[in-house]
Backbone:
């Protein structure tokens, strides 16, 4: 098993010298500092394996439940690594990019959406050697996450597109395709009305199973299309 340095998870980068959170259009040294703490996809994959082997993950709120979710993440990532196919349109569009970029993805190992999205973003990035895909953990970088909230929530995964030379933010995408996002928000609202704990657990499990089935049926096509739309505007 490949071993990864735990220093990437030690603590959030300090922002003591700044009075505000990162701005989406910001172009300054904080992004460089964050990138120094980031890891590549292979190390991200290896880190998940390592943490599961040690039954230890710094971001876990509920160790048993989140360890289970993290194990599912690893299984789904490995499946997509083997089976996800980039469309001809995706290949052409990505190959046409001439500006060196860094795609910086905020993620968490237990996240079911990240299991589906992160491997897809990685496959897209791998189509052009001018693109570098780096990953950081959301809970280790709250200031960065808070600059890219989704409806006021710290939703992941979320990929920030940076111009490599200037670290200027060119765009961002996440946490999931629009059609699925609408389905998720509607169902979370309904779930919030359920008072019985057992009923909530049952319906919540059913709901997230439907989310994963949506991803399986979609075969990453919506993620590819929507991410390309953001790149077009970059």
Residues:
């Amino acid at each position: 098993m490949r071993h990864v340095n735990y220093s990437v998870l030690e603590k959030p980068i300090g922002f003591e010298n700044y009075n505000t959170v990162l701005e989406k259009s910001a172009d300054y040294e904080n992004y460089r500092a964050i990138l120094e703490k980031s890891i590549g996809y292979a190390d991200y994959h290896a880190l998940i394996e390592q943490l599961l082997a040690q039954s230890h993950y710094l971001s876990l709120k509920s160790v048993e439940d989140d360890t289970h979710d993290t194990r599912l993440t690893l299984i789904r990532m490995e499946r997509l690594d083997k089976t996800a196919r980039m469309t001809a349109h995706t290949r052409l569009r990505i190959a046409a990019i001439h500006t060196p970029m860094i795609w910086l993805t905020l993620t968490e190992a237990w996240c079911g959406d990240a299991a589906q999205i992160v491997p897809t973003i990685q496959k897209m990035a791998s189509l052009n050697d001018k693109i570098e895909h780096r990953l950081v953990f959301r809970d280790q970088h709250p200031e960065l996450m808070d600059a890219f909230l989704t409806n006021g929530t710290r939703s992941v995964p979320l990929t920030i597109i940076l111009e490599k030379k200037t670290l200027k933010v060119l765009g961002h995408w996440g946490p999931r395709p629009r059609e699925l996002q609408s389905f998720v928000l509607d169902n979370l609202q309904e779930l919030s009305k359920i008072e019985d704990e057992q009923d909530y657990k049952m319906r919540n499990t059913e709901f997230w199973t439907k989310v994963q089935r949506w991803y399986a049926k979609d075969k990453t096509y919506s993620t590819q299309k929507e991410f390309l739309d953001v790149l077009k505007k970059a």
Observations:
- The first strand starts at residue 101 and ends at 107.
